[in-house]
UniProtKB/TrEMBL annotation:
Pfam families: ATP-synt_A (PF00119). The chain crosses the membrane at residues 29-53, 89-111, 123-142, 154-177, 183-203, 215-234, 240-259. GO terms for cellular component: plasma membrane; proton-transporting ATP synthase complex. Key component of the proton channel; it plays a direct role in the translocation of protons across the membrane. This is ATP synthase subunit a. It is a multi-pass membrane protein. Signal peptide: none annotated. It comes from the Bacteria. The gene is atpB. GO terms for molecular function: proton-transporting ATP synthase activity, rotational mechanism. Gene3D superfamilies: ATP synthase, F0 complex, subunit A (1.20.120.220). Belongs to the ATPase A chain family. It comes from Motilibacter peucedani. The lineage of its organism: Bacteria, Bacillati, Actinomycetota, Actinomycetes, Motilibacterales. Coiled coil: none annotated.
Length: 262
C-alpha cells in the first residue's frame, strides 16, 4: 500500500545508476570520484591498523590484536592451507589476506555514516582485483607445469577420442572468460544491488515523512524506515560474505592451477 501511494505521489524520484556516479573533480575515466577516495581511505585505515597492531604485539592480545590475528588465521588456515594445501599455501597468504581485508573494509565502510559508499559497486574495482587473481593463477600454473602441460591439464583424465576437442574448448572458455567475469560481476552485482535497494528505502521514507503532503504517507513512512534498518543489517552480512566468497574462489582457482588436472 505504501509503495502504491509513494509511486502515485508527485515529486518522488527513485534512485538510479546516476546516484553512484559522484565525481569530486574532473569527468570521464580520470575523474576523482567518491569511490576512489573511499578506496584510498580503506587502504590507509587498513595499513595504519596493521602497522599499529604488529608493532605492539603482546602475549595477552588487545581487542584489536585479537581481531587482526583472528582474521589472519581465518585466511591463512581456513582458506590458504585448507584449499591450496600445506605444501604451497604459504606464498599465497599475503595475496589472499590483502584481497579479503581490502574488500571487507571497503564493503563495511559502505554502511558507516559519513562514508556510505560501496566502492565495489563501481565495476572497475572488482575488475582490477579479478585481473590480479587471473594473472596469478595462470602464472603459477604455467610456471609450475610449463605452457603445454598446463593447457593439456584442462582435459580431465579418461576423456579420449572425439570428446577431447570440445571438452578442451569448454574448459578453455571457462578458464579464460567465465571464471574472471563471474568473479568480478558477483562482487559488483551484490554491492550495487544491495545499496540501490538500501537507497530506495531511505529516500522513500525520507520523502514520505518530510515532503509528501499526505498524512497517511507520514504514518506509513515507518515501514520504509524499518526496512532500511533491516536492510542495513542484511547488507552487513552480504558485505562480509562477498569478501569471503571472492577470496575463497581466488584460493580455489590458484589450487586448481597447481593441481595435476584443472
Amino acid at each position: 500500500m505504501s509503495a502504491q501511494l509513494l509511486a502515485s505521489a508527485p515529486g518522488f524520484e527513485a534512485p538510479g545508476v546516476e546516484d553512484f556516479w559522484q565525481p569530486f573533480a574532473g569527468d570521464g575515466a580520470w575523474a576523482l570520484t567518491r569511490a576512489s577516495i573511499v578506496m584510498v581511505l580503506s587502504v590507509v585505515v587498513l595499513v595504519a591498523v596493521l602497522v599499529a597492531v604488529t608493532r605492539k604485539l603482546t602475549l595477552v592480545p588487545s581487542r584489536t590484536q585479537f581481531m587482526a590475528e583472528g582474521t589472519y588465521s581465518l585466511v591463512r588456515n581456513g582458506l590458504g592451507r585448507e584449499i591450496i594445501g600445506s605444501h604451497d599455501f604459504l606464498r599465497f597468504v599475503p595475496l589472499l589476506f590483502s584481497l579479503f581485508t581490502i574488500i571487507l573494509l571497503s564493503n563495511v565502510l559502505a554502511i558507516v555514516p559519513f562514508v556510505q559508499f560501496p566502492t565495489m559497486s563501481r565495476i572497475g574495482f572488482p575488475a582490477a582485483l579479478t585481473l590480479v587473481v587471473f594473472v596469478v593463477y595462470h602464472f603459477v600454473g604455467i610456471k609450475n607445469k610449463g605452457v603445454v602441460n598446463y593447457f593439456k591439464g584442462l582435459v580431465p583424465a579418461g576423456v579420449t577420442g572425439a570428446l577431447v576437442v570440445p571438452i578442451f574448448l569448454l574448459e578453455l572458455i571457462t578458464d579464460l572468460f567465465t571464471r574472471p567475469v563471474t568473479l568480478a560481476l558477483r562482487l559488483f552485482g551484490n554491492m550495487f544491488a544491495g545499496h540501490i535497494l538500501l537507497l530506495l528505502f531511505v529516500t522513500g521514507a525520507d520523502y514520505m515523512l518530510r515532503t509528501a503532503d499526505s498524512g497517511v504517507l507520514h504514518v506509513l513512512s515507518v515501514g520504509p524506515f524499518l526496512g532500511a534498518f533491516v536492510m542495513t543489517a542484511f547488507e552487513l552480512l552480504v558485505e562480509v560474505l562477498q569478501a569471503y566468497i571472492f577470496t575463497l574462489l581466488a584460493a580455489l582457482y590458484i589450487a586448481g592451477s597447481l593441481a595435476d588436472e584443472h
